[in-house]
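$ run holo --ligand "pyridoxal-5'-phosphate" --emit tokens
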Amino acid sequence: STTSRSTSASTARSAALMEHARTVTPGGVNSPVRAFRAVGGTPRFIASAQGPWLTDVDGNRYVDLICSWGPMILGHRHPDVLAAVGAAAERGFSFGTPSENEVALATEIVGRVEPLEQVRLVSSGTEATMSALRLARGATGRSKVVKFAGCYHGHVDALLASAGSGLATFALPGSAGVPASSAGETIVLPYNDVAALEAAFAEHGEEIACLITEASPGNMGVVPPAPGFTQALRRITREHGALLISDEVMTGFRCSASGWYGVEGPYDEGAPDLFTFGKVMGGGFPAAAFGGRAELMGLLSPDGPVYQAGTLSGNPVATAAGLATLRGCTPQVYDHLDRVAHTIADAAHDALSAAGVPHTVQWAGSMFSVFFREGEVRAYDDAKDQDTEAFSRFFQAMLDQGVHLPPSAFEAWFVSASHDDEAVEAVLAALPIAARAASG
Ligand code: PLP
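-- output --
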């Protein structure tokens, strides 16, 4: 079984730490997916990391295919990032005043993402989407928000709403503690369904402040926009005077060298009104951002009436890490990510095919995931229809062989510039055995 391994000698320290952690922290973790509830077994407590490798407290080594859920695009402890962080920390940890690194990071982001004019820095992706939402509501004077089922935008009340039954229903609270009044301002629609979008905007268009979408969903597994879908989002929001927010927290600076995944080009040709970023741009430290054109961003305090602030926003150490990481994201890095991702995805496909395990691999740039089901996944209902038991067996067999996948069937697999031949070979060697385990 998947749980019997948790008592093996080689995970004794992780198991003991987890047991203690549960007494002082809910579920033993500070973010739920880390608890391994979806796959069973003992979460590995990681003691250190280098390049593409994680080492746990029992001394086991794993090829890292989580990469901190995206940020570690250059690999762990990249020398340039380490040096930048060290130098920044030498100068001070946090000032609560303006500092030069914040300006440098904002300049780098604005320089990379063509339509962006201004960004405001925050400390997490959740803060970025929450603030973008407030700005959109402030700018339009409207309150309703449209999101897609299966898209995750952080744990913002209005964005944790889950779909009710039917197509364009108002949402139900997606968590205890989210008031119905908050979820009730959210309309949840199926992804890749232009007709549902048209219908929702026809009915509620004048009340809708914004539509928020992952540039390419990665939080239900990778579900790329169907051809024309992103353009339809732009057209329909514009027709109804609503803003389009492209959540690039996961895709930003990962899917492509140009930084973003939405429709390329200036605002009047289809760029979103607001963007959110996180993960890669923080280089593994708490830094995130939201931005758009100067006129819209000018509505934020201190210039405008929309309040937004943060004690640690633009933190000097975090911005140093983000800046060094973005500067390290060269075209060669993206070529390498592409190559490594395709090598691993092809091998996973071959191994699962050979073992007779139904599966589908989907892509957004160099971001991919493996669904344990047959046939294309276009929306959340498709994604939910997979064999999560088969994934759990696959996951545990990979882990036993020293490859740490994201512990859920609904996640992208992340690679880094540091995934070299040794790391890739280790993954390729593990796949056939894991595929046979998945087949039951
Ligand atoms: N938006 C997207 C697309 C994400 O993938 C995430 C996190 O996974 C978030 C927002 C929230 O970011 P954070 O976890 O930094 O709050």
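-- notes --
Confidence is low (pLDDT under 50) at residues 1-8.
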